[in-house]
Amino acid sequence: MSMKKIVFGIVVIVALITAGVYQYIQYDTPVNAKENNIKKVTKPFKVASIEFNPILNERDKNVEALAKLTEEAFKKGAKLVVAPEMSTTGYYYANRKAIEPFVDTIPGKTTDVFAKLTKKYDAYIVFGMPEVDKKTNLYYNSAAMVGPNGYVGKYRKTQMWETETHWGAWGDLGVPVFDTELGKIAINICMDSAYFETARLAGIQGADILAFPTNSSAQAISALPARAQQNGMYIVSANRSNTEHGFHMIGGSAVWSPEGHKLAEAPVVMTEKEDVDKPTITYATIDPKQYKNKNKKALKERRPELYKELMQYVEPWDYTKNTTPHKVVAAALQYEPVMGNKAKNKEKVTSLIEDAKKQDANLNLVVLPELSLTGPIDNKKDAKSFAESADGETVQFFEDLAKKYQVSIVAGLVEKANNHLFNSAFLISPDGSVTGKYEKTHLSKADEKWATEGSSLPVFETKELGKIGILIGEDAQFPEASGVLAVERADTIAIPSAWNGQYGGEMEISKKMSVNPYPDGSMVTWDAVAIGAQAYTVVANYVGGDQHFLGGSSLYTIDPLYGLDQPVVAPSNKEEALVVKYETLQNENWFNQELLLLSRRTPYFVPLIQE
User: Fold this and answer.
1) 71 catalytic, yes or no?
2) Could you tell me how far CA 108 lies from the centroid of its own chain?
3) Predicted confidence band of residue 25 (pLDDT cuts 50, 70, 90)
4) Rounded CA gap, 297 and 287, in Å?
5) Which end of the chain has fewer CB atoms within 10 angstroms, the N or the C?
6) Which of the residues 154, 190, 348, 575 is marked catalytic?
7) How would you label 330-360 residue by residue, b for 16+ Cβ within 10 Å and e otherwise?
8) Does the annotation count 157 as an active-site position?
9) 190 is catalytic
10) Residue 18: is its pLDDT beyond 70?
């Protein structure tokens, strides 16, 4: 290795360590409701997203115009207003010198303008602006929150897009959550949403609402239903709807429920010809009774002891990563299980694999639903009766199929090991050997009656397919699990499932937002695994039966938004072998797993792995 590379490496490491230390000595103290005698709102209240398009370099005019729009929203009853990222100045600045005349402190003159309005109308606003820190003279892409009693707090963007890095410093406040009359409110900004961790940091602190100023061309706002759902919180997003320096922002400002349902949305404008320069105000209602919900409750089922890898930042010259793309032809088998009847289910599985092989002779991966030959089990007696060792009948059956059809197979069973029962899935290679085993780590309510939690999130290396990670059923609810698989460089994630609607839900983003539109029946949770880990994700689910399984076996891809690839989803009511094709890695794409991992700001993530 050359001296130049060694020196560069040392510089990068020192910079990361310095950034990490600096991030943990700077905090904006969250407001505590009890200490400040804040009386909580209990009835539904109106929120407003202001789709405001500032004029570049015209801070004073922009602040004046935004203040008028804010007052309009307040007069119509909005108790919380959210305005876009960099809404006081415009977005594009080439360097520190270019933006220097337009920065302001937080609190400062800009927040003072809005404090008069929030006091008058007993309301709150969150808006984006470039901030200067008086002590350091560093600039930040920030958002300020102002309320009835004046300045509440601020957030400095954690995961910056490349444009801002030419003038701004990484945020150093973590993700504070401010306890207000309206509930606990946190802030993320734009690119933050491409990384599940930033919203999750708000979620584990009990955030009820995430204010989301953005300047998005699709990626940031498309992730919001998943972020709402994963953390059981409302999200109020405010985007722009015009073009600046060739960068087109698509509108689509929206309010999302804690279940990931769209409560309101401004028009989506996908081309510069459709630019809407005039402001748009979008209203919706938030109900504090919904702050307690099943998705927020599920946060207690996280397993931080398994997520330590999230803290790892592997240097750009990682010699362990796979650099060879693999062409995969996968089949997700979807069938109605004959509950407890292995023989009947074997017949179905064999027939479906034969059908998949006829569809494409190059088939090299088959994924089956959870507990593939028995169907889901909800009691210990049945689990014990079906339990097998890793060299038992079920594994042998799949080993024989793998050899016969020359495919890799991911299939599940009740495994008995070390006097425990596990909901396990095995990865079997075309030569019939077992490449790896995964024991489900996030159990369903039915699993808890008989299964022991797994203790790791492994990724398996294969010659034919690259690196494969496995999640089972409810594991997909926890973005930390797929995040670990991404850090471990999974090229493909297989998800055997038994899904009948107990988590997740259909995607509700505007179909216009994606160059390659999502098919009907696309599921938020599974898509979030693929996009969040930047790994192609093959899901196999049951259909029908007494438990009303919802099918939707699928391929979720890493970038349908900008036209790289196309998700594929099976119907909800039909047995079939869904055959899909993709090529792993996509090293040349504008965003991929490599770039995701190199841009993560891991020093912030400590709270996610604390037990």
Assistant:
1) no
2) 34
3) very low
4) 17
5) N
6) 190
7) bbbbbbbbbeeebeebbebbeebbeebbeee
8) yes
9) yes
10) no
